[in-house]
Design brief:
The structure holds 2 protein chains of 2 kinds. Chain A is an all-beta fold. In chain A, about 0% of the residues lie in helices and about 40% in strands. In chain A, the strands form 3 sheets. Chain A has a 4-stranded antiparallel beta sheet with strand order 2-3-4-8, with no helix packed on it. A 3-stranded antiparallel beta sheet of chain A has the order 1-10-9, with no helix packed on it. Chain A is globular and about 35 Å long. Chain A starts with a strand and ends in a 5-residue tail after the last strand. By secondary structure, chain B is an alpha/beta fold. Chain B has 6 domains: about 180 residues, FAD/NAD(P)-binding domain (3-Layer(bba) Sandwich), CATH 3.50.50; about 120 residues, FAD/NAD(P)-binding domain (3-Layer(bba) Sandwich), CATH 3.50.50.60; about 170 residues, 2-Layer Sandwich (Enolase-like, domain 1); about 55 residues, no CATH class; about 70 residues, Sulfite Reductase Hemoprotein,Domain 2 (Sulfite Reductase Hemoprotein, domain 2, Alpha-Beta Complex), CATH 3.90.480; about 150 residues, Sulfite Reductase Hemoprotein, domain 1 (2-Layer Sandwich). Chain B is built from 26 helices and 39 strands. The chains are: A mainly beta, B alpha/beta. The interface between A and B is medium-sized, with 37 and 28 residues. Strand 2 of chain A pairs parallel with strand 39 of chain B.
């Protein structure tokens, strides 16, 4: 059973942007794409730990603000040829309310 | 649903590159079958010369192993030549009777050596130089026989001759023209080349025409007879007089081909006259040109794959090419029109003793062609100048001496060295200082990942991807490792991979078509991605803002974090804060306020910046608004130390105190900072005012620098103190402070309106030429006033302190974390 924690309303997250959520499991970045898809990743770039929540969101990717690695929001994997992975967290939107699960997948 | 069937005829570099691109774009769209008439999997044909010379092995030049085909579910038929295309029933048939049906067919049949139509051309011992079989035949002959004759003194012929010499043969090169490489070089450069090849032991017979190849007793060729009656011994004859597109199969299937220069005709989407049949590579003729170099083929492959994947947005519009000779120890580069002609001017440098020759051909103050022999490291730069049609009039006097002579003294300390010196560096030598990439890493990555272009090497290794000053070195390593014509590129450089349009085209479209937002631009200009990338979004946001300063609503999500959060992000995710100090002047009250903030927020480090301001480090993002509140209460506004924006005006103390000062440099600096602060720019923009020619404020390495003199003010532009140090150019000399401010506003606005996003004033001035800037800012007083007025209009909405806006609550959520 996934336990969901409500963290925000969809409107609290800017489109093509992100918010940081401070959780018991550390900081998690919640992203919202241009088509209102929502994804959650650990807020640390697999390269040098940059805060992914501060990056530019484009398509289903975010660019790390430190060295411009591109991370796929749906898998957490770095875009090739870079290699690395940011942990993913389950996230869902019900009636505009965004909920997270703190167990990474 | 059953998948479509794609058949590739021609298992060579162009066809296979197309498949690799296609698999990236649409991995599951087709069942793919590949036919190749050679018994090998796809290999790097450019590297046949090093194989012949014994510098590499056949295994080392294989690009796609048989396992690769299997992994990708591709059926590979090697050693089978397709002899028939049945377009009506849509199948191909090989010489052994194998049939394969297709929904789409890709022809990449390449080219074949042109064999001179002379008696004896079909004798054993006569070969071309196109494939591994030819190389094997040459290596076998080298072990058995003594006399080799290469017919053709072009690139391929010289590489063959060099290889055979290395294999121990006695080699003569026969050439019909008066000098070698007449299509790539002019006579003086060619003579230098000939001399150094003769020193290696090669013999040359120029202006000689072959009449006949003579059959020996064994049935093998034994001699070569010229039209003038002379005869020379020849146990091996290599025909390297040129290549012809291999279009036999296409012609037999009734596809339209060109008679001269040959080639299967294709349109800009790489389609033949039969829309189900595509073609790429050396077999095609695009807009009258049949390319024989790898980089244009890569472009074609990319475009073709885009259409096979049914994305339908790419167009191939031809390529500009350059040449390099792959003979170890000989450096040669040529590109464009190096012969000159009416309306062309030539600049020539010749030093026969050092074996160095350079010739540049100019037309209308732009570089039209170049031949370099000996020192070729600037080849890539010249090629860039040609491709970008850069106005070279301002540095014409230094053009011949290379990039590092025009103030480009970056980390690429090896610039000016020959390829051999770069390649003699140990594998542990650091090439890219920014990203710590060594030569060995680059070579390993090029080999393992099959990289052919600079962009690919950058993506995989990061080498030359940051400051770019080692680009020349990386290109040299790439050329030596993967093949010679690396530097070729499409003739037009798009803003990013999301679009086909250039910066200038996009800027013009925004103004002409009145686009008002980023989505409008993307839709109107046919963007290939749904919402752009990190390159185009910030650029479009700036271009839109610059075009409509009073109406455009800024798109925060298209800004890099520093500009969105109005601070500089640091490696630990904290931010730094720089309050503005007008002209570098401050007072005890301001310093006390900064000290109070530093203590109150436990700021771990306080430092003076390069631009004479105070920087507070290590501030958490959520604390930024509170920090700004305190600074704001003390009268500070944002110093914009984080933006592609006007930064600071650095000043010296000037006539108020300094015994040498000629004018009030601090006072003028304050006025200039008040004029320009808050302005968003294509890139960061720094100013300085020095009170006398001793120039203590270092105004001559700034974007806009003022040097005060007794009679007035010298205005200097386009300087840079960063990666590539560039000294400013003198724009004008004026007499009053009011004039300084007007020129400053006009120059700034011209840069804002014309430069490409992320282009500093230094490269912009070099690209458009100082004459252009003078014409708009200095010589035309009306235009100067108009520019200054447009700057004033754009400054009105821009000069609102972003810190104060945010402490008042604007965009508050940007700074507030959520909790769970």
């Amino acid at each position: 059973m996934t336990s969901w924690i409500e963290v925000a309303h969809l409107d609290d997250i800017p489109r093509q942007g992100a918010r940081v959520v401070k959780t018991a499991a550390g900081e998690i970045a919640v992203f919202r794409t241009v088509d209102d898809e929502v994804f959650a990743l650990r807020d640390k770039c697999p390269h040098k730990g940059g805060p992914l929540s501060q990056g530019i969101v484009h398509g289903k990717k975010v660019a790390c603000p430190l060295h411009d690695w591109k991370i796929n929001l749906d898998s957490g994997l770095a875009v090739a040829p870079d290699v690395g992975c940011a942990a993913r967290y389950p996230v869902r939107v019900v009636d505009g309310r965004v909920s997270l699960s703190l167990t990474s997948v | 649903m059953s998948r479509m069937k794609l058949v590739l005829v021609g298992n060579g570099m162009a066809g296979m590159r197309t498949l690799e691109e296609l698999l990236k774009a649409a991995p599951d769209m087709y069942d793919i079958t590949v036919f190749g008439d050679e018994p090998h999997p796809n290999y790097n044909r450019i590297m046949l010369s090093p194989v012949l010379a014994g510098e590499q092995t056949v295994e080392q030049i294989v690009l796609n192993s048989r396992d690769w085909y299997a992994e990708h579910g591709i059926t590979l038929h090697t050693g089978k030549r397709i002899v028939k295309i049945d377009r009506k029933n849509r199948f191909v048939e090989a010489d052994d009777g194998t049939r394969e049906s297709y929904d789409r067919l890709l022809l990449a049949t390449g080219s074949k050596s042109f064999i001179l139509p002379v008696p004896g051309a079909d004798l054993p011992g006569v070969v071309g130089f196109r494939d591994i079989a030819d190389v094997d035949a040459m290596i076998a002959a080298a072990g058995q026989y003594k006399h080799a004759v290469v017919i053709g003194g072009g690139l391929l012929g010289l590489e063959a001759a060099n290889g055979l010499k290395q294999r121990g043969m006695d080699v003569s090169v026969v050439h019909i023209a008066p000098w070698l490489l007449e299509r790539q070089m002019d006579e003086p450069a060619s003579r230098l080349l000939q001399k150094s090849l003769e020193e290696k032991g090669l013999k040359f017979l120029l202006q000689k025409q072959t009449a006949e190849l003579v059959r020996g007793e064994s049935g093998r060729v034994c001699a070569l007879k010229f039209k003038d009656g002379e005869t020379i011994a020849a146990d091996l004859v290599v025909m390297a007089v040129g290549i012809r597109p291999n279009t036999q199969l296409a012609e037999s299937a009734g596809l339209q081909c060109s008679a001269r220069p040959g080639g299967l005709l294709v349109n800009d989407t790489m389609q033949t006259f039969d829309p189900r049949i595509y073609a790429v590579g050396e077999c095609v003729n695009h807009r009258g040109i049949a390319y024989g170099l790898v980089a244009p083929l890569w472009e074609q492959a990319r475009v073709c794959a885009n259409h096979l994947a049914e994305h339908g947005v790419a167009r191939y519009q031809g390529s500009m090419t350059s040449t390099k000779l792959k003979v170890t120890g000989i450096d040669l580069f040529s590109a464009g029109n190096f012969v000159g002609g009416e309306g062309h001017e030539e600049i020539v440098f010749q030093d026969a003793g050092r074996g160095s020759y350079k010739k540049l051909v100019l037309k209308d103050n732009k570089l039209a062609g170049a031949v370099l022999y000996g020192d070729t490291l600037d080849g890539a730069w010249y090629f860039e100048l040609m491709r970008d049609a850069t106005d070279v009039s301002d540095f014409r006097d230094k053009l011949l001496f290379g990039r590092h002579h025009i103030g480009d003294s970056g980390a690429g300390g090896g610039m000016g060295d020959e390829m051999s010196r770069v390649m003699a560096l140990p594998d542990s030598a650091e090439i890219c200082g920014c990203n710590g990439v060594c030569k060995g890493d680059i070579i390993k990555s090029i080999r393992e990942n099959k990289l052919f272009t600079l962009d690919e090497v950058r993506a995989h290794t990061k080498a030359s991807g940051s400051c770019g000053s080692c680009t020349g070195l990386v290109e040299t390593i790439l050329a030596a490792t993967a093949g010679g014509d690396y530097s070729t590129a499409p003739s037009k450089k798009p803003l990013c991979n999301c679009t086909e349009h250039t910066h200038d085209e996009i800027r013009a479209a925004i103004v002409d078509q009145g686009f008002k937002s980023t989505p409008e631009v993307m839709q109107g200009l046919g963007w290939k991605t749904p919402d752009g990338c990190t390159k185009c979004r910030p650029a479009l946001n700036y271009y839109l803002l610059c075009a409509n300063p009073t109406e455009y609503v800024d798109d925060a999500q298209s800004r890099y974090i520093n500009e969105r959060a109005h601070g500089n992000i640091q490696k630990d995710g904290s931010f730094s804060v720089v309050p503005r100090m007008w002209g570098g002047l401050t007072n005890p009250k301001e310093l006390r306020a900064i000290a109070d903030v530093a203590e109150k927020f436990n700021v771990p480090e306080v430092k003076v910046t390069g631009g004479q301001r105070i920087d507070l480090f290590g501030i958490k993002k959520e604390d930024l608004p509170a920090v700004w509140q305190d600074l704001s209460d003390a009268g500070f506004v944002s110093g914009h130390a984080y933006g592609k924006a006007m930064r600071t005006v650095k000043t010296c103390v000037g006539s108020q105190w300094c015994r040498f000062g000629t004018q009030d440099s601090t006072g003028l600096g304050v006025k200039m900072e008040q004029l320009t602060w808050g302005s968003w720019m294509p890139h960061k923009f720094k100013l300085a005012v020095s009170g006398c020619p001793r120039n203590c404020a270092e105004a001559t390495i700034k974007d806009f620098g003022v040097v005060c003199v007794d009679s007035g003010y010298e205005l200097h532009v386009g300087g840079n103190g960063g990666i590539k140090v560039r000294i400013t150019d003198l724009l004008a000399k004026v007499e009053t402070e009011e004039q300084v401010l007007e020129f400053c506003a006009a120059f700034t606005q011209l840069y804002r309106e014309e430069a490409h996003y992320l282009e500093r004033t230094a490269p912009w001035v070099e690209r458009v030429g100082l004459a252009h800037i003078k014409a708009k800012v200095v010589e035309d007083a009306t235009n100067r006033a108009t520019l200054a007025e447009r700057f004033a209009i754009s400054q009105k909405p821009a000069q609102v302190d972003p810190w104060k806006e945010r402490t008042a609550g604007a965009l508050k959520r940007e700074f507030m974390p959520l909790t769970a």
